[in-house]
Amino acid sequence: MFFTEENVVSVELNNLRLPLATFVLEVDVVLAGRVTAIFGASGAGKTALLEIIAGLRRPAAGAVRLDGAALTDVAGKIFVPPERRAVGYVPQEGALFPHLTVRENLAFGQARAGAEPTAGLTFAHVAEVLEITALTERRIGTLSGGERQRVALGRALLAAPLLLLLDEPLAGLDAGLRDRLLPYLARVRDEFRIPMLYVTHAPDEVMALCDDVLVLAAGRLEQRGVPAAVFEVGTAPRYVRRR
Amino acid sequence: MAEIWEITWFTVCVAALSTAVILPGGIALAWLLARKEWRGKSLVETLVALPLVIPPVATGLLLLKFLGRRGPLGGWLERTWGWEIVFTWRAVVIATAVMSFPLLVRTARVAFEGVSPRLEQVARTLGAGPWRVFWRVTLPLARRGLVAGALLAFARALGEFGATIMVAGYIPGKTATLALSIYHSVQLGRDDEALVMLGISVAIALGAVWASECFLRRKTS
Fold this sequence. Notes:
heterodimer, A: 243 residues, five-stranded antiparallel sheet, B: 221 residues, globular
């Protein structure tokens, strides 16, 4: 358990339904609000699920509640726009603003955080934890893949989210870089204590960072449990056993 | 010669003004076409492209019917504000604006389509509302394409002839642009004068198109 009770935020996904190209995403689950992995093969609907939570997609039915407050509720005609959700989102490619410097990227979301940053989320502290202090005056085009992901993570943190959505932040990086970045994610988890949903298809990332795993296959929740149980030989999802 | 410079100055001012007039609406429409799905979108797309494909003289005739004293808009403007449109500099601005509008919208639309929607989405999750996202993310990232579109529209406005002659006529000192004056000079057998104005037209247009290309190329590099 990485979080004390006061840090826990409940994320309720009630009867969510969204038709996608080849299947229908259907999820009904309550998350404990620690570091939860959404695990599954490519095209299982993981990114679509994060987008619904972030408010970037509207589901056909169902509701999303953060600490009991509805962010999306199709039946109740509630849709809180993404800018008022306090849900941070780091997509796979980082999506840094190429026309801004690292400092300007990091400061982009600070307006929402307000004058008093919470839980030690100051610019200096976040930059220090992610070791990006020396990069702040650089242009985005000059950063390496790993640096970009750290800046993207810092930018999302500085907007003081109640929940952080990470969409395969280490995919697309080579194995060495992945191994070097994992400790940064662990530091973010331990230092800032912001609940995270971590989308990945790499079991080692789940084992290193998460304490709860949802296994998604073709839009449905196939399995749920602690990483050690889910990835135990014999009970692991099919596409893990094949490796 | 002094007259030629006056004509040149008038032409540049009219082209700049018509570009400025269409810029806000053109950018807004280009964004709507690039980013939103709405009813009647393909109809608007077709209407916007129309001045590119129908004869400029026909566009001019349409404007004349619409903006003339007995036309629906021209009559109203004269009664309400006392503004005369046809055969004044205002008609030149309107004719050049209508003819260059499609070029601005098309270039600006491509520029907006080149901005990754992902960046706009992430900006929203960082607390920026739709307006802030537009001003701080979309517009700066599309700016080179937008400037290129404005320069192309300006260059098109500089050389406008067909619609302008219909709706504004050739009135020296009042509506005479470079293109109209070249035609008038040739008709009167003043070829030397026409050639000087031709040189000026080519030089300004070349400058505008070259600058436009530079902006577009920098965007893709």
